[in-house]
Amino acid sequence: MIAILIAGAIGMLFTLLLTPVFIKMFNRLRWGQYIREDGPKEHYAKRGTPTMGGIVFVLGATIAYFLAVWLSGEGPTAVGLIVLFMMLGHAVIGFIDDFLKVRKHQSLGLGGWQKILGQVIVSSIFALVGLQFTNEQDIPLVSSAVSFIRDTDFNFMMFGALAGTILVVIWIVLITTATSNAVNVTDGLDGLATGASIFAIGSFGIIGYWQFNQACGTDRLNSSVVQACYEVYAPLDMAIVAAAIVGALVGFLWWNTSPAQIFMGDTGSLALGGALAAFAILSRTELLLLVIAGLFVIDTGSVIVQRAYFKITGGKRIFLMSPIHHHYELKGWAEQTVVVRFWTVGGIFAVIGIAMFYAEWSFMSGVLT
After folding, report:
1. Lowest pLDDT segment from 51-60, 242-251, 295-304, 318-327
2. The pTM is what?
3. TM segments (predicted)?
4. Would the annotation count 187 as a binding residue?
């Protein structure tokens, strides 16, 4: 518990105090945001605002995690390291995209397929490395089964070792690509993706800590709830790294909220999406991610629906503009109103996800029977 608090505090202090330093540096480097020409006119005033702010909280979260495990005497585990790998790997993809935008003086950087290729490479390495690690209880870091609130009976290895491994990699690539792009799509208003990510990643911090307290093979378990224990690799470390990221995001939000003095850019949004996917996979809650990250699902879904309807009807639109947060802006909602209401929706989804997680444990343990 001490390590969790230390990680959150260091992450928050790092971004809260040092973000102004990065803002000045990015201004000198002329790393300014370029705005979509077809977007809301109110956004034109944001042109030139420093971008690539994801560098700040990714660096802050990484430092916070290592300091927390060092000060607590625990030491890093494969869970913390591989979550950071997913976050840093996607941050690099986002940084290249952001840098190209700045260099070309336009709002387009990497092509869509180039981004996806990078995401596939990072998530495939994550999957293949994760399948190799097991802890003292022989619990794998990355499971080969599809999970909801814990692993289901559907295990890809039923198709054989080689085919099963390939299918696991494909499954993880799909989860990661969808999640990182969903956060990227949602990052369209000041503080929107930052606040929503605090709720989602914070939920996995709570889940990780609960799994630690109810881990199979530990003396913390009450004999009456052994059947509801969790077979997860180092869940406490997952809670620590989640706290480090959430703390860093809270400090960053101080500078990122409207009117934003810095944007996270694709550097930050892709990094957060990669971390979210990693948490869901490592905590064996892959399908529960659809609930916890419900706001990201809705925002991305609005883009898919808009494009499909546009093609089917030959040019008609459901929304004034997609993603849906821009639709409400064009309807006359103030940007701050849209952000706060979307945060509320994101928080509700996170609470529902945690409630479903706890309800499953309650039924499994017999607490509610």
Report:
1. 318-327
2. 0.93
3. 6-26, 51-71, 77-96, 154-179, 191-212, 232-255, 262-282, 288-310, 338-359
4. no
